[in-house]
Design brief:
This protein is an all-alpha fold. Helices cover about 70% and strands about 0% of the residues. It has five helices and no strands. Helix 1 runs antiparallel to helix 2.
Length: about 120
Amino acid sequence: MAGFQLGNVVGLLLTPIVMGSIGISGPFVLFSSLGLLWLTTWAYGVTSDPRESPFITKSELQLIQNGKVDTTASSGNLLPVGLLLSRLPSWAIIFANFTNNWGYFILLTWMPIYFKTVSIIS
């Protein structure tokens, strides 16, 4: 979650600078370009099995495999959603994530309007 918060801090600091030099559409273009770059990098490096990853050393793979327990997900069967939603900790995580994201995205949604009206950046 730290990357999410760090991204917001960097975004809040860079947005007025980018808006002042490029305009109100500048932050959207900049951050969407960075997001697509990150997606491309992530899609290249992600694998469904650690044995297939070119970025994991043999010692890391051994450590992962020693601590790994056979799960139903490894055989292709996923846990039923009803089972997950019947647990109180799942609802606590959903509620915490929803309220946390709500605050962030309200700030991010109103930020361009704030900069345009209060800081007089067009």
